[in-house]
Amino acid sequence: MQTIKGNPGAPGIAIGTIVLYTKQASDPAEEMTFATARAACVEQMKQLRQRALEEVGEEQAKIFTAYQMLLEDAYLFQPMERRIAAGEPPEQAIGAECEAVAQRFAGMKQDYLRQRADDIRNVGNLLINRMKGAEPGLVLPEGESKVLLAAYELTPADTFLLDKKRLGGLITEQGGATSHTVILAKSMGIPAITGVRQVLSALGQHQNAVMDGQTGELILDPDAQTVQSYLQKQDSQHAFREKVDRLDCRQAVTKDGEIVRLCANIGSPRDMDALQNEEYDGIGLFRTEFLYADSAAEPTMAEQEAAYRAVLERADGREVIIRTLDIGGDKEVPYLRLPKEQNPFLGNRGLRLCLERRELFVRQLEAILTASAGKQVKIMFPMVTEISELVEAKRCLGEAEHVLLEKGQPCCEKVKIGMMVETPAAAVMAESFAACCDFMSIGTNDLTQYVTAADRGNPHVQKLYCPYHPAVIRLIANTAAAGLKTGTEVSVCGELGGNPLFLPLLIGLGIGKLSMAPALLKTARFLICHMAKRDTEQLARQILELEDADQIEAALQRTYQKLLKNIS
To answer: What is the DSSP annotation of 511-551?
Structure first.
């Protein structure tokens, strides 16, 4: 029996037999030209989109729309056509151009942008395989046990075309929690693990295994006792999901009456679709990078206003926190001509860059103020490390408001200003910052990365990127305490905000507002309604006395298991 640790992808437990995915053999008789293959791929994406609409819903169907758009993108394909016309082998031209574009996204700060690198590569491979005559889709072997499909990478098309009755889970080396393949797996209820190094050589064909998509653990050749243990865990998860689905509580209130506000993180207006049937208290984080990263030129004022207004209107009176542009030297936005940096994660990014590109920044602020005329909006600044930066950002906001008033343009009159707490500097100085803003939101992903000095996108240091690190916990506690002392709202909008293990701890530390992916809201509300604030405060005191990450993780696991056991 051997345990391999990957990265959590889509939650769930699967028990079955590993099948190693190797690409289908090509049929020379079906080989196509570049143009014909590209047209065939576009048509297939249209068909998959329609099928996804019928089977898993509009949000997942948009994945195939995105792939179709990439296949139709002249910016991506014109360089390939020129190289092929000059005599270069098509496979080489496609691979080189896709890799060049993918590399521009691979180092980006936001996971959802970084995962676009996988999409670009997937589109290239899809096209190459179609030119060679290979049809997409995998035929899973017959048998009694479920198939745990292991692959270097899988495209959304590969995943969606699999036989759901035979498929138990997905195991990949490439991809991440925000990749389109994992998003699709979640919607299909298929457990997934990513980041398994040397996956095709580390695992054996037809090897028995157990996988847990929640923890990222893969157990090879499990004994009977282990299998039985995971079967019981699987039954417990199904029972828990049924209880969550029956929840009729519309607000997250602890058993002793403490109200916790639950908000959603979104990355574009279309993400509001996922909230259509959800109970939520507002948009705790509206990322605006999509406007700039998905365009060949700076978005116009009209384009920006339309995006902001769409979210404000669909929020239907709930609060909306719009984060200003958070890009930097790790993001290839050609029209901004950002210089290459040796260490972009510590470089000119976020608010630093916006203050340097003041005109760009003020235009965004003008668009936000115009779109929110007659409504309430909150504006949040990213990557703040000095009070002077926050002061200057507020001055830019005043400048934007002045420009609009001079034009006689209606705009939002009462804007609340906040900042991301995602650097150790901001967390250590939280009380001073709290005096200069209306609210603070802790970005736990980057805070953990900067505290542990471990790039969260680098598989070689994944073990060091640890949110259970006592330094991370204490900085969150320091920020929460600063908010309580000054009367400044402090929320968590990073990944820990929706992590069931951390919910009791965050509430116990004094965090009264959490923002998370829409899919996590119902589970968070269910758990909060079954815990007591006094118990969470006791847990927080205990955790703050611990000095070892493993001890902290174990304590949070015990608390979570006890909570589940007490839920009737």
So the answer is: --EEEE-GGGHHHHHHHHTTS-HHHHHHHHHHHHT---HHH
Task: Judge contact between 478 and 447, C-beta under 8 A.
Answer: no
**34 Cβ partners below 8 Å, 6+ apart?**
80, 81, 84, 90, 94, 127, 131
Query: Residue 535's Cα: distance from chain center in Å?
Result: 30
Residues designated as active site: 180, 493
Closest Cα partner for 68 from 136, 122, 13, 11?
122
Structural fold of domain 28-131: Enzyme I; Chain A, domain 2 (1.10.274)
Fill in the amino acid letter for 283.
I
Q: Please check the confidence at residue 257 and state whether its pLDDT lies above 60.
A: yes
Residue 320 in 3-state DSSP?
strand
What is the tens place of the pLDDT at every residue in 509-542?
999 999 998 888 999 999 999 999 999 999 999 9
Q: Which CATH architecture has domain 247-566?
A: Alpha-Beta Barrel (3.20)
Q: Which residues pair with 286 in a beta bridge?
A: 266, 322
Q: Give yes or no for residue 553 having a pLDDT over 60.
A: yes
Beta bridge partners of 208: 17
Provide the whole-model pTM. 0.75
DSSP classification of residue 151: E
For residue 230 the two structure tokens come to 């995971």
Nearest to 172 by CA among 139, 202, 195, 148: 195
Q: What is the pLDDT of residues 298-354, one digit of tens each?
A: 899 999 999 999 999 999 999 999 999 988 755 567 677 777 777 777 877 889 989
Which is the CATH superfamily of the domain at 2-24+137-244? Phosphohistidine domain (3.50.30.10)
As given in the structure block, the two tokens for residue 294 are 């998905």
Of 520, 556, 448, 549, nearest to 177 by C-alpha is 520
Residue 250 has pLDDT above 60, yes or no: yes
H-type helices in 315-429, by residue range? 350-356, 358-371, 387-407, 424-428
The CA-based diameter of the chain, rounded to the nearest angstrom, is 75
Question: What was the pLDDT predicted at 280?
Answer: 94
| CB within 8 Å of 100: residues ≥ 6 apart | none
Domain regions of the chain by residue span:
2-24+137-244, 28-131, 247-566
